[in-house]
Amino acid sequence: MQPFRFARTTETKSAVLMHGSSANDASSSESVSAQYLAGGTTLLDLMKLGVMRPEQVIDINDLEHGKAGNIEFGADGLRLGAMSRMSAAADHPDIRRNFPVVSQSLQLAASAQIRNMASLGGNVLQRTRCTYFRDVSYENCNKRKPGSGCAALDGFNRPHAVLGTSDQCIATYPGDFAQALIALDALVEVVGRNGIREFPFSKLHRQPGEAPHLETTLAPEEMIMSFYIPKSPYARRSLFLKVRDRESYEFALASAAVALELDRDRVKQARIALGGVATVPWRASKAEQILVGERLNDAILDTAAEVAFKDAVSRSHNAFKVELGKRTLVRAVREAAAMEI
Fold it and tell me: Which helix (H) or strand (E) is 325 found in, with range?
């Protein structure tokens, strides 16, 4: 780990001003001059590996909006402060009862120790687990060093993405919580030099395209303040299904966040987001449309799954993810429909 300056402030405006440049302006993830520190469960790992080398680390745990903006459940929906810890949201009784997909996605995401430490804002911004990104001995990683190539294309790519990929990067987005937020049409509130703005959470992450090192739509100094999940008729009938190599503390090979509104035995509304198979948190909108107005039988579920993975592009080791992703989607929808609420 290279030497860095450490700063701490209690004022959001001060943190934003001292941040300086960021990855969106830098030539590589290594050259980012400043990083915010909350739980640090991703940042510190990457600094130790030499993947991220900020000149300054800004501790934001004592910011005024962090202390005030924890978890607020009301008649209109749910607001989650970005500084709230994963464990606090996962165990919150109102969230478990009214937004079970949120609670489950956080519960299944990490060990108890990490859930106690990691913040919600940091969780959605975690970097990929691609070996070629995290091991600096590999020179060719477009996400770490733009223009250097992608070692995963012809290397070991079993955990990599089949949706949203490009010829520049096939790294999988690793998180779980983000899929729940997308499925429930969440909004994200951020603050930067130009003030506060709010936009759909689905607009936060960028697909790799020709610039894999640009991972979000945040301005260099912007930080997440909160997430807002509106009240909906499908939020209570929701769940998160995660398929992985082992049952505990492992990243998804395929996952699905599903929320349904049923009219007797027919689907009135459906929300489906996929994880473990895409370069960004992935909304399966076309699959949702297939289900609306239909009874959930084998034929309609299989059709929805086929549509969801119609544009999948697999590589030498991850072709199994297409079929696994389809089965995960079908199982998750079936289990959501069978929920007693």
Answer: helix 320-337
